[in-house]
C-alpha cells in the first residue's frame, strides 16, 4: 500500500464501515477499512458490543458502538458463547431490532461531520446487515455492501427460486429425516453429518445425488441437499433473499475475491445485480487478518515448524465457529494417525461438542502428537500457510481460509460444515482443482487417503502445480494493470464521487 499512502495527507472524506461481529466477517471488513484509510479516507467503524476486542489494534480509526448503550439490553449479551445456529439467529434478531439505534447514531455522525467539514461519503456494511439499506436511504447516505463470500456462493443463493421450481428442495427434504431438521438457521449444517440423516421409508428420489445440476453445472445434486434449505419459505432462505434484495438496492458491491479466480461468476453477477461490482481482493494481501484476531495466536510451535522438511506438514484448521461431533472427531484422530504425516492442528476450545479442549484425545494419540505433531488453540494462519514446511491445508473452506490458502499456493483437503463452505469446497475441488473434497463425511480411511493424495502420492505434484499457477494469478491481479489493482482504483474514485 505504500505507493498509495500519499493521498492520506489531504483527508477530507469519511467512510463508515459496519462489520458483522464474527471473525470471518470482521477480518475482511477491517482489512477493507485499512485499504481505504491508506488511500486517504478517514474511517469510522461501527461495532456491536459482541466480539469487539480488536479495536485497540487500530488507533487510526474512530470506533462507535451501537446497540449496546443500554446495559440491560440483552439482544447482544445473549449471543456470546452460543453455537453458530444461535449466532445466526441473532443476526436475524439484530436486523429486526436495530434500525432506530443505527439511524440515531448515523444522524449524530452526519451532523458532526458537517461541522468538521469532513463529509461522510458512504456507509459500507456487511451484506448480511440488510436492515441498513433503509436506514441509509432515510438519511440519503449511499450504502455499499461488502460481501465476504465468493461470487459463486452468491450466484447459488440467487438461484434458490429456480432450484425450488425444479424440485431440488423437495429432494433435499426427502433425503433427510424431518425430525432432525430444526426450523431456522440450524438447517445449515455439515454435509459431513449427512450420514446421521436417513431417507424416510418409501420415499422416491427423483434425482441422483451424485449427478450434476444442469442449472448450475458446478454443483452436484447433493450439494443442494447439503445447503439444508427447505425452499424459499425456510428462514435461512428468507434471510438470504433479504440480503440479496438489499444488496441489489445498494450503491455497489465490494468483493473479497479477484476476477481471474471467478471470471464466469463475475459475468453472471454483472448480469443479475444492477449495481457496480468491485473485485479488489484478496484483502489479506494488503493487511494481515491477525490484526483483527479475536483470539491470541500461539507461536511456540514455530521453531518446530522451522525444522520440518519442505511441504511435509499438514496444517489443520476449521475456522472460528465450526464444531465437530465426538464420533467424527475420533475419525479425524484415527485418520491422522493412519496418514503418518506430520501435522499442526488448530483445535479451538469447545471445537468438539461436549468437550473443553483436548480432553477426549486418547493417550496413544497424545504420544503421537509428541512425535510428529502440534495442537494449538489458535495459530497465525497466514504465516503458517506461507511457511516452507506447510504442504497442505485441511480446511472447512471458510472463504477467508480458502483465499489465504490459494494465495500461498497450498493445496487443500476440504471438509466444509455449513453455509457457503460446501459451495466453496465444490469450487475448490471441481473448478480450481486444488483440493480433495471429503464429500462423504469423516471416515478415517478416506481421511488418510485424501492426506496421502495431496501430500505423498504422485498426484500431489498436479495439485501443487495448479496451486502454484493460482498463486501467480493472484500476484498478477494485484499488480498495476492487474484486475484487482485496477478495480481498487475504480472503487476509490467511485467512493470519492458518491
Ligand atoms: C465464517 C464462515 O465460516 C465463512 O464461510 C464465511 O465466508 C465467513 O465467515 P470462519 O468460519 O471463521 O468464517 O472461516 P474463515 O472465513 O476461513 O475465517 C477465519 C479467519 O480466521 C481467517 O482469516 C483465518 O486466517 C483466521 N484464523 C483461523 C487464524 O488467524 N488463526 C487460526 O488458528 C484459525
From TrEMBL:
MF-aspect GO terms: quercetin 3-O-glucosyltransferase activity; quercetin 7-O-glucosyltransferase activity
Keyword Nucleotidyltransferase attributed: no
InterPro entries, A to Z: UDP_glucos_trans (IPR002213)
Keywords, ordered alphabetically: Transferase
Domain of life: Eukaryota
Keyword flag Transferase: yes
Organism: Lactuca sativa
Protein name as annotated: UDP-glycosyltransferase
GO cellular component entries: cytoplasm
Similarity section: Belongs to the UDP-glycosyltransferase family.
Amino acid at each position: 500500500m505504500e505507493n498509495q499512502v500519499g493521498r492520506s495527507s489531504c483527508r477530507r472524506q469519511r467512510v463508515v464501515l459496519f462489520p458483522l461481529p464474527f471473525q470471518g466477517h470482521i477480518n475482511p471488513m477491517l482489512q477493507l477499512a485499512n485499504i481505504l484509510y491508506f488511500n486517504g479516507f478517514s474511517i469510522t467503524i461501527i461495532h456491536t458490543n459482541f466480539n469487539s476486542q480488536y479495536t485497540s489494534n487500530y488507533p487510526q480509526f474512530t470506533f462507535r458502538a451501537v446497540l449496546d448503550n443500554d446495559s440491560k439490553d440483552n439482544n447482544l449479551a445473549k449471543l456470546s458463547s452460543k453455537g453458530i445456529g444461535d449466532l445466526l439467529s441473532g443476526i436475524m434478531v439484530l436486523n429486526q431490532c436495530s434500525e432506530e439505534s443505527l439511524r440515531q447514531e448515523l444522524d449524530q455522525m452526519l451532523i458532526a461531520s458537517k461541522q468538521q467539514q469532513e463529509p461522510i461519503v458512504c456507509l459500507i456494511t456487511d451484506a448480511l446487515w440488510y436492515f441498513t439499506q433503509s436506514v441509509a436511504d432515510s438519511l440519503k447516505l449511499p450504502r455499499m455492501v461488502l460481501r465476504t463470500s465468493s461470487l459463486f456462493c452468491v450466484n447459488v443463493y440467487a438461484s434458490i427460486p429456480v432450484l425450488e421450481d425444479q424440485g431440488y428442495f423437495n429432494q433435499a427434504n426427502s433425503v433427510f429425516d424431518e425430525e432432525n431438521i430444526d426450523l431456522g438457521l440450524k438447517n445449515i449444517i455439515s454435509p459431513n453429518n449427512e450420514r446421521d440423516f436417513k431417507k424416510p421409508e418409501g420415499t422416491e428420489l427423483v434425482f441422483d445425488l451424485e449427478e450434476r445440476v444442469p442449472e448450475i453445472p458446478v454443483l452436484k445434486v447433493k450439494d443442494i441437499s447439503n445447503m439444508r434449505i427447505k425452499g424459499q419459505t425456510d428462514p435461512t432462505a428468507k434471510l438470504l433473499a433479504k440480503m440479496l434484495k438489499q444488496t441489489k438496492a445498494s450503491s455497489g458491491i465490494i468483493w473479497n475475491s479477484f476476477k481471474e479466480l471467478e471470471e464466469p461468476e463475475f459475468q453472471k453477477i454483472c448480469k443479475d445485480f444492477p449495481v457496480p461490482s468491485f473485485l479488489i481482493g484478496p484483502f489479506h494481501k494488503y493487511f494481515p487478518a491477525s490484526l483483527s484476531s479475536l483470539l491470541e495466536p500461539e507461536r511456540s510451535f514455530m521453531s518446530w515448524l522451522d525444522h520440518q522438511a519442505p511441504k511435509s506438514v499438514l496444517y489443520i484448521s476449521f475456522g472460528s465457529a465450526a464444531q465437530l461431533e465426538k464420533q467424527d472427531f475420533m475419525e479425524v484422530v484415527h485418520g491422522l494417525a493412519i496418514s503418518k504425516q506430520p501435522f499442526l492442528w488448530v483445535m479451538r476450545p469447545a471445537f468438539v461438542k461436549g468437550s473443553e479442549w483436548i480432553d477426549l484425545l486418547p493417550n496413544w494419540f497424545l504420544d503421537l502428537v509428541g512425535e510428529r505433531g502440534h495442537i494449538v488453540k489458535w495459530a497465525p494462519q497466514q504465516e503458517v500457510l506461507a511457511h516452507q514446511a506447510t504442504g497442505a491445508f485441511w480446511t472447512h473452506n471458510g472463504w477467508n481460509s480458502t483465499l489465504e490458502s490459494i494465495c500461498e499456493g497450498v493445496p487443500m483437503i476440504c471438509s466444509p460444515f455449513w453455509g457457503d463452505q460446501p459451495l466453496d469446497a465444490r469450487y475448490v475441488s471441481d473448478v480450481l482443482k486444488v483440493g480433495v473434497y471429503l464429500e462423504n463425511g469423516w471416515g478415517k480411511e478416506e481421511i488418510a487417503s485424501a492426506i496421502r493424495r495431496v501430500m505423498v502420492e504422485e498426484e500431489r505434484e498436479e495439485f501443487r502445480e495448479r496451486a502454484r499457477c493460482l498463486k501467480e494469478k493472484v500476484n498478477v491481479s494485484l499488480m498495476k494493470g492487474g484486475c484487482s489493482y485496477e478495480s481498487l482504483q475504480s472503487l476509490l474514485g467511485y467512493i470519492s464521487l458518491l
